[in-house]
Amino acid sequence: MKSIPKIELHLHLEGGAPPAFIRGIAKEKGTDLSRIFREDGSYSYKDFWHFLKVYEAATSVLTTPEDYARLTRAVLEESAENGVVYSETFISPDFCGGGDVAAWREYLHAMEETAAKAEVELGITLRGIITCIRHFGPEKAKPIAECAAQTKGSFITGFGIAGDELIGKPKDYLWAFDCAREAGLRLTAHAGEWGGAESVRDAIRDLNVERIGHGVQAITDLALVDEIAEAGITLECCPGSNVFLGVFPTWREHPIETLRERGVKVTVSTDDPPFFHTTMSAEYDRLADTFGWDEEIFDEINANALAAAFCDEDTKDRVAKKLKKGT
Ligand code: HPA
Ligand code: ZN
After folding, report:
1. Cβ of 114: how many Cβ atoms within 10 Å?
2. Which of 103, 38, 110, 98 is nearest to 67 (CA)?
3. Is 15 in the pocket of ligand 1 (CB under 6 A)?
């Protein structure tokens, strides 16, 4: 599966940090982070909410634009190794200058420069989606949206929301989403991972997003599934993440195949790959084993992802050629 060219739309940048990378930076800075690692070196947490805390602890050692340049390179190497030719990553200015636009620009410059170099060297194209963090609250989301609006460009193409979906409502973040929309950014929101079908409905209706991060709980409301299919809203599905965190007990019970059969545009991503012990190749392997997905279906999935990608048309044309070359 490694050699099949792939598109990934849902990857949290710090969530892609290999544990050894974070341990190395912690050591350089003299920070003791041993509590967030197991003896075997992997990240240690007990559930999604604890995961968010461990994620933020790991992120706390990344304090400079140079750290983010190194992180970007490490994440892109891993993605390219798994056949990813185009990737969109969630980046939170909360962790990169705390919402100050001037500081954020420095972090962004470091990441963009690293991505441009990696594109030449590794053959993977990266774009950034700025995310506000739901459990930090609506007021904190405002300067984050302003960072996004002011740095929209060929690299920063979208805006979204991550974090604890069970806190507040999508409409609490309307100011931030309106600010990003008015700047011309494309929109996505995490919903329907831990919240029910209603949370997906709310995100679509109140924030007017064109993609949903996860969205898989829509499966409990088939009228909503049909509306999603009809509206052409793309779901950024992360089945390995969902099964690892216990959203669904087994791969068999994951609704991605039912959603696809009902006409929803589904895509496949890893979310936070080392945290959930997955890779894009592993996701493809499990989908082939569980649902009998073959090359034709993976082509369909990548076509969905390319159509829903937030990059410009020239970039899409270049990525489309890479997808074709692989087949
Ligand atoms: N889900 C929600 N918020 C997050 C995640 C995630 O997987 N990773 C980092 N923030
Ligand atoms: Zn996510």
Report:
1. 22
2. 110
3. yes
Q: Which of 178, 209, 174, 172 is nearest to 191 (CA)?
A: 209
Ligand 2 centroid distance, CA of 203 (Å): 15
Name the catalytic one among 78, 112, 193, 283: 193
Ligand 1 proximity of 67 Cβ (cutoff 6 Å): no
User: Could you tell me which of 257, 265, 274, 246 has the C-alpha nearest to residue 9?
Assistant: 265
pLDDT digits (tens, 9 = 90+) for 44-80: 999 999 999 999 999 999 999 999 999 999 999 999 9
Any ligand 1 atom below 6 A from CB of 190: yes
Distance of alpha carbon 323 from alpha carbon 327, whole angstroms: 7
Residue 325 Cα to ligand 1 midpoint, Å, equals 33
CATH topology of domain 6-311: TIM Barrel (3.20.20)
Global pTM value: 0.98
Give the start-to-end residue ranges of the domains of the chain: 6-311
For residue 265, which phi and psi values (nearest 5 degrees)? Answer: -80, 100
Query: Could you tell me the CA-to-CA distances from 103 to 60, 61, 64, 73, 133 in Å, in that order?
Result: 16, 17, 10, 20, 18
> Which of 50, 131, 190, 237 to mutate to test ligand 1, by most ligand atoms within 8 A of the CB atom?
190
Give the number of other Cβ atoms within 10 Å of residue 13's Cβ: 25
Task: Supply the DSSP string of 41-99, one letter for each residue.
Answer: SSB--SSHHHHHHHHHHHHTT--SHHHHHHHHHHHHHHHHHTTEEEEEEEE-GGGTTTT
What stretches of 172-265 show up as alpha helix (H) in DSSP? 174-182, 197-207, 222-231, 239-245, 256-261
pLDDT in tens, 217-249: 999 999 999 999 999 999 999 999 999 999 999
236 belongs to the catalytic site: no
